[in-house]
Amino acid sequence: MIEDSKLDQVYDPEAFRTQGHALIDVLADYFKSAQQRNIDQAIPYQDPEESYTYWNAVWQGQDGLDPTELFKTMLDRSTKLHHPRYMGHQVGVVAPVTALAGMVSAILNNGMAVYEMGMVSNPMERIISEKLATKIGWNAEEANGLLTSGGSLANLTALLTARAKCSDIWDQGTDRQYAVMVSEEAHYCIDRAVRIMGWGSEGIIKIPTNEKLQLDTGLLEEQLTKAKTKNIEVIMVIGCCCSTSAGSYDDLHAIGAFAQKHNIWFHVDGAHGGAVLFSDRYRCLAEGIEKADSVVIDWHKMMMTPALATSLVYKNKQDSYMTFHQKAQYLWANQTSQDWFNSGKITFECTKYMMVIKIFTLFKVYREQIFGDYVDKVYDLARTFAAHLQGQSDFEIAVEPESNIVCFRYLPQNPDQVNTINLAIRQTLIQEGRFYIVQTTISGKIYLRTTLMNPMTTIEDLMELISSIRGIATKY
Length: 476
Ligand SMILES: *Cc1c(COP(=O)(O)O)cnc(C)c1O
What we know:
Blueprint: H1 7-10, H2 13-35, H3 48-60, H4 67-76, H5 96-108, H6 121-136, E1 144-148, H7 151-166, H8 169-172, E2 178-183, H9 188-196, E3 204-207, H10 220-229, E4 233-240, H11 252-262, E5 265-269, E6 294-298, H12 299-302, E7 310-314, H13 317-320, H14 356-366, H15 369-390, E8 395-397, E9 405-410, H16 418-432, E10 438-442, E11 445-451, H17 459-474
Parallel strand pairs: 2-3, 2-4, 4-5, 5-6
Antiparallel strand pairs: 1-7, 6-7, 8-9, 9-11, 10-11
This protein binds pyridoxal-5'-phosphate.
């Protein structure tokens, strides 16, 4: 070994113990002060160049740093999801115990694709998939599922499965034009997946939405007929459960019935709102989901789990094995057998981190009920907030919230200024950093958008947001 190699230090258990204890203290202090609003800023905004200059100086500076100092700086300069005034993007406010589970996965690094490298996580993955299948209303014994790296990849995987089921494209290629039907409010990853598969613009048929921003199911038949006359084969119809931008739940009953009638694969994108399956109060929003052939749910959004952790579940086990019928001699003894314990056979990933242990831990430590409690809390709050906004003459909401997403805008005296003023409000809020909210465009209008992800956000926080907005607006 070279004389000054640090290799033995890298693997020194005692150094890890010391660094680990120090880090846990830093993290516990961080989310305590964020949670209690002792830190004023939910987002310590820096513009990209400023931020680059800062990190480049660290990079150019001395090596051999104390990791705790480095971690502290990362915390200070990041957006704080545990802050109750965080109400921006729909990324989960992590239950700390899941981060501990993540550390276990990080140290073990069992890659999961083959059974020997996933003796803990492969069985757990099966259990969690069976759990979801039951929640959806399927027969868990006939279903199958997998965890994968995000909703985008999960949706692509489902599309690949549907495509494999109706063609021999895997071995033969094809010149047929396939397409998917989906609401125009769907997440952009569907559009991207279609283009990745080589279907081009013709491959995605975006169905207009009704006034509640739900897919207008009355248009499905005519759109299908239109596609057929153009020789386009619709092989999947997708229901949003819920949509990303405004959080609207499509009518899954109607879409499912349409899919059944025409023998088309019915996929439900429940990346965000599939969590309602765990809530007695809001489960009704997902009615009809049991008609689906496949369902996607992100654990890292509404299920308090760190990114990325996404479930893709199939109603019929057979389907799950169709996606990638590929041979890998060095991985699997039997290439064609449908063994659930070699999860690499049905996932895009080869090496995959043990994402499931975070979920399994959360269930076992806090019980299933917390998922429903979480949904109830943040969905209720969205309704309270929207009702309050409706009582204000200087605000309007885009649509009554079905989920925890509220899109609204400030109405200035001069209606011509409405878009510019709302853009300016959002920009000023970010720069002040006390609130983190985002923006969206619905029918060409700019809206402010809050996703109430943090169960510790209160209606008082939202009242404060309203007065901050008014304060900013008066300066224009
Ligand atoms: C967030 C989201 C996605 C994308 O999921 P990622 O995990 O971010 O890749 C897809 N569909 C919907 C409805 C979403 O809300």
